Amino acid sequence: MADIPQQSPKNWTESEVSTWLRSIGIKEHYIQKLYEEEVDGQILLALNEDFLKTKICMKSGPAHLIIQKRDELINSQQKCQEKKKTTGSKRTEFEEKKSKKSVQCLRTVSDGPPAKTTQSNQEKETAQEQRVLISKEDCKPRPFDQEGTNFLYVKHSILQPESGAFNLISPCHEFKSFAVAATLDRTRLQAKFAKEVLKFAAGCMNIRSNGTIHFGVMDSKEDITYMHGEIIGIPVTDKDIYVDALDHIERSFSSDKEHIRQCVRPPRFIEVMDRQSTEKQYVVEVDIVPSISIVKSKVYAVRLPNFKESTNKVEFEKETIFRRVGSKTEPVSDKDLSDFYQRVKDRDAQREEAEKNHFLIAPEMCQDLGRKLTMLMTSGKKFIEKEKWFILVTNKFKPDDLMNIDWLINMNIFCVFDFDPDSKKSGLCSRYLEYRAANMHSLQSYKVSTSTNIKELTSKLVLFDQTSWIFCNGRTDFKGNETPCDEMTWIKKSMIQLKKSVSLICNQILSKGTFQVIFLLTSPVEKPLLHTFYEFFTDMEGHEDIICICESEENFHKWQSFAEDSCGKEAVNNSSVVGMKMSHINATLQHIQPVKTHASKHLPVFVGGTCVLKTQVEEQMYSLEILTVNHCDETSKEFINEEKENTEGQFYHGGRVTWLHFWLAENKYAGEVIERDAYHDTSKLLNDALKYNADQTPVNIINIYHHPGSGGSTVARQVLWNNRKSLRCAVVKPSYPVSVVAQHAVELREYEEKDPQRCLPVLLLIEDSDKEYLDDLRNELEGAINEKQIQYGTLCFILLSCRRSHDPEKKCKESPLQNVSVTHKLSDQEKRKFSEKQKALNKKYDFNFILTFVLMSKGFSENYVQKFVKNLLQGINRHSVECRLIRYVALLNTYVQHSFISQSHCEALLALKFDSERFRRHEFERSLSDQAKLVFLHLRDDKTHIESIRIIHPLVAKEILQQLLEPQQTQSSLAMDLLHEDVLFEHSLETDDYLTFLRLLFIRRSRITEEDKYFLSLFSPFIEHVRGTEEGPKKAIELLEEAFRLFYSDAYFAQQLARLHYTYEKFEEAKNWAETAVKQLPDNSYILDTKGQVYKKWFQAKCKTIENVPKTAQNTADAVETALKALDCFQECQRAAEAERQHVNTSGFYAEVEVGLGLLKLISSVQVFANRSNGHSECMKYLTSDYIPVEVKDAWEPFHGRLKKLQKTIEDTLEWISEDLSYFQTHIGADEEEMPAGPEGRICNPLTWLAKLSSEYGKYFSKAYSTAVLQHGKSIPNNLTSFQKLMIIYDFGGGNITSIFSTLIDHKDAVQRLEHILSLYPSNPLNTNLSQRDIVNYIAAHISLNHLSPKNRKVAPLKNLQALCHKFTSGKVKCLSTALFLCTMLSWPDDNDSEHEKETKYAFVQSAVGHLERSYQTKIKDNPSKRKIYTHFCLGNEHGLDKFVHKKKLDRILTGISLPEKRRMWFSGEVFTKPEIARMLKPVSGWTKDQLVYLEGPKGRKFNIRPANASSVLKSNENITFYLGFTFRGPVAYNIVVTK
Hints:
By secondary structure, the chain is of the alpha/beta class. The chain has 69 helices and 37 strands. A seven-stranded parallel sheet has the order 13-14-12-11-15-16-17, with helices on both faces. A six-stranded mixed sheet has the order 20-22-23-24-21-25, with helices on both faces. Helix 16 crosses helix 27, helix 36 runs antiparallel to helix 37 and helix 38 crosses helix 43. The longest helix is centred in the N-terminal third of the chain and has 27 residues. The chain starts with 13 loop residues before the first helix and ends with a strand.
């Protein structure tokens, strides 16, 4: 961690505030929030606790701590200032310390001494305080008397003290602040400057010593608040003023003026680097070189110029001889004058000897720059690390250098900070793009808004997959207003964003030790480049991973003088390679790169042979890891010889198989990789798919289901490797959307092929994705294929899905022609293979190194794993911190898939510190015990290269967890210890993954399979284990409560606690936790659902308590109140769910109905209603009118109003559910993902649920009549009210359109029920005042009855139903979606309609479709992929109602096909290739234009039809035919085919 910044807090940047906050122990997510809110030092000083708690949502504890520590800091600095005042001219201890830390040595704030003669005391004190807080570094002076030296000084760095003559050649130095004089007018300034220069020059020349006088450097006499030799700088508006000032030589010397001109060099202007200023300042220096050939035998007297204010002109003092005495220039006194002249010859001789010796100095020994460069680039290894990222910082390249950048082409360049505005046009970027892909960015591209997280930014900029080329000073080829600017303007405009960009990359995107920064200086160095070094140095907390490469020593000097001020001379020299030509660099570095330069990659082609895959094209398909024919051939032989044993050994130790391992095995550098039975099964399925079949689908899916750690991924990759020469193979990278993956897959298929009809299939491996992702990818690919009009029957893509499963064999049995299983159990043949392989490995590796392979060869038998772990752990120190770490990793690996702990977290727990990042992994491994070395598997993230560890296998982790627990220790106590490991919890590096795994341990629920039904466990597997084995819920509650506290009162932990408490009927506590969760997330529908579930379970428990006692209004009042509270909660849940755009949560509606029906049951069981002959009618009268029985009046006083609305509430909610189910497909499959905060119980079969509960609802209000009719065959009485008839209709299953249409699935008594339903409606509904809902249900009943009994006389003619549809639009009431759907379908024109009838019908349909579309947009929210619109009917070949073919009738033809597969066939249009289905449907003619589908209406009018699959619409404008489906979004087009 960087040291705490030392300057005044009000000058701190956002990063420095973050550093300080970490130093006082503030949690990282609070620090990140304050950083995002741009809290710098000035804002920090103005903060108060209220702001931190309300705006930053900080808890009281940390908010109070921040304010307290800030105030302490301010007080301590004020005391420091007071101490400074009392010590006078003494230097403070702080000033004398020369810190080597970046933040201390570089963060400067002072603007130098006052330029004006007046300044308030307050300003002086402030300036003094700032200067006291500056840590000042020594620096070297500019190289003496060297022309064209590119050099600069850093403000507040310290030159060595003024010196006298040493050896006459080494210059003596004199300092002048010149702060006041620099502001004078021209005449006064020149007089002052000439006076000081000529006085110093005469002194140096008279004693024959070289010298330099510095203007803009503090002399300790001038201001006690500055250190002697401190570089301040002066403003220089016109350099000619200083140059012309030396014209005073002519009047100041009476003779030998030419000698003076020769010895006094012209003024040099060395820029002063000040990071806090945007104004240029300089140190002005004049060198004095009294060569013996000029000054021999001479003594120089000078008349110094002096501006007299009284005469307002320059006058010259009397002639004086000066000499250097120690560090001063003094006049020669009269008494010493004779002696001074006598010693002229001695001084001449000394000078002559000194010059002679100087020219005879032997040149320095030349460094071995090649070895130095190699060591720096490889971090001391033999090759440049393939797993390391490089950041390049560079400026303008010379044309010759651009011919020698092959070494850059092969490197993993994460990003380039390019200061050459012409780079894309004619510089390094242009050359790089000839070989590699890169994205053009600016510093602004790395600006993170409050609504964007790092993962989103990484994805947006395609980081890690393509080089990010950051133009730091504009682009001349770009029209986007990125103009280059001079360096001072750049400092004003761009420096802050550079600082943020560097900080973002170093601290949030890349991890320390995973990257190296190369400063490649190919042209003169300017300030922006130096600022960039400073920012990297600061954020990387040192120079260790920063390298400077510079051919020109002149360019390097400026860099060197700046860098040395930051990290010292030795460090700069050790990390810099200077003087090496680019061609030499190129040749040297290519030799140590793991891959050969310009190696070509090949892909197979359709006609046989191969084509070259260009690297930049490959990188443009960044969502795919493409496997080429000659994959790994480009690897250098030296690298292979170095890595072959490590690559193979890592795999057999438990690591993932690599392509290099397959290559080594194929080329006999390593033993062959065993081919499991599953490999042969998968290969057979693949070969069968590749055989031509006219009915072949363009996209085929093969699923590999495997036990965790059983080798499924190896099987899948082995299939790809062995088919790479005949198919185009690639692995789909995670986190990219299906649209991008599909686009890249199509590009891969067609790359370098002439005809899209004749291309090799693409084999895509998709690992650990959910079913929805796979389906979406398939649909996207099929859409692309259809768009390109690929001939049907052509196999284009094979999706090889490799996924974990707890029961792979069951998956295989479900679909043996599509699924393959990989388990820990080995077949007899596999056992023989593994046994032979183990014998070969035993000769090559130590037994302990191939433990995972040995375990696999034993089939991971439980007894063997137990014995293995027992032997492994013998001798381990169970009380050590390391053993604690093993337990923690085992706990996470047992319960959280893919979990790991980063190496930096392990180091923090073990209190390890390393001097060097370069050998960190090696040192970490050395620090582990033998047992830990064996059980830990080291991982490295493919993108970020963050290193981490996990146990070698999940089953081993589970067994370690069992055996390493102490006698009194349980898994819950271990988890509690893990929660209390502050070192891990608060570790600032790579925190996100660790906290995610920790949350999942407590919250992530698992899917349970039971008799082909799939549902979520109530709690995470770990919590389920704890509550099932350890004292019931007590320990689980303690754990979740502690997690809730540590995770900053996370609402989801409170939600889990509410569930846990109500599961054990601790309802009061459950209520409190549910309310806590709601308080945190008041608009989260899932949290509100949990609160409702608390009251629902509480209500059910209260009903159970009084189940066997006579129920009265008094003893049921409490339960009634609880039920009403549950209904309130579920209604809140409904409102929140409808407001949410990202999620679809319908649980509140279902739960409301269940509670409502439970409440009806309770009410009807109360004695006043249950024990009387007219009790049912009394109950109905109470619920549906103003009537209140005396028996319930007082006890239920608070509830009467709510209870009388109960019937209407249930009816409306049932109707909402019916409509929702009518819109969308509703089946929940085995592979569907669930949110951790999902509803307590999802309905597995909503259609059945709705039909059942709708019937129950009707039964409560019509029990006597409906039972008699159905069970005893009695006729329906004529004296029933319309409400009673409606309730009987509900009981019979006719209460809503979804229940009516579900009779088409369940045929039991369906015809009889539908006939009864229709008999309850008026004989002439057209002339009666039926509600919209009643008309909808009436029409739906006719349609269903016609479907089940086509010749039934009770079915009304289509024309009658069409006439009824017009009643929907006759009133002012808004049409229901169900009504609009029926209007659309029933009013669809017939071929034999007249033109007028067609015109009327089309207009009617178009109007209805418009309203349906608006309703659909409200329903669909932002989840179009999650909710697929459902097609109820298709247009058939018959007439009347027979022309509407229900989807279920078509589905029955697709027997033996799974539901997801049926959905896919419908979506792709494949279902319509079945002849039986095609014969039933009527093709409709139309055309496509601009990717829209049209149907021709009357009088040439066009009717826009939405395609069921948008990607199936051709880009070209064609005549087409299609089948028409009817949905709640309007008619849709299926199976769009071009008319031949």
